[in-house]
Amino acid sequence: MASSSSRVDYEIITDPFDPRCVVACFKNLFGELTEKDKLLLKRMRGKEDKTSPKDTPQEERDLINEQIRKSQGFDVDFSKFRCLFDFYAAFHVDERHSNVIRETDRQFFRRLAKEAIADYNTREGTRFEFVEVEKANVYSNSGFVYFITFVAKDPCDQTKVFQAKVVNVFCREIEHSFCRLKPGQQVECDEDSKGVVKKPRNNTRSNKRADVTTNVS
């Protein structure tokens, strides 16, 4: 699942022979869901009622993968699914989505977002400051791929929404694939005294952080 070093890995790759492939599959296809899985599904889906979707499992699988491709992994409506997939929403709580991570999910995704905006500032010559994580989606396969949406503010105290993709293959260093402004936003800062936020350009390489490694318990 390592990201490419020759181009920005924005688009979702669906070729199963490509190590960067992200395709949602059923979780626990041949067994019962654990209590933890049932709680996760309930958190994502909410309470079912007569208006809840009643798609077949295959229709749900097609729908979630369509949403993943269209949003490049960042915007998926998990309330539409009764099945649990290996692509799911992470919640910013004092729990851990993986036993190999020592931090709580709240701490972990905040740290990744702060690292992502620091890398973005270095690359683009900007001075954004991290504010908060809005949401994070997780793809779990031979490790994890994180799709993090977070808020940062510019020198004029105007907030912008960012998207960061982070790859965490088991027993390897965490790799920041890319960080970008969420498409469709203006980025100029009008107050020259506070500094001008430059218009972002495409990142042409992935960024491995040698100082960040997975903590294995």
Automatic annotation (TrEMBL):
UniProt superkingdom: Eukaryota
UniProt key word Repeat: no
A UniProt-annotated Pfam family: Cystatin
Domain Cystatin residues, every copy: 107-180
Signal peptide: none
Region (Disordered): 192-217
Single GO MF annotation: cysteine-type endopeptidase inhibitor activity
The keyword Repressor is assigned to this record: no
Keywords: Protease inhibitor, Thiol protease inhibitor
NCBIfam families noted in UniProt: Atha_cystat_rel
The name this protein goes by in its record: Uncharacterized protein LOC108844379 isoform X1
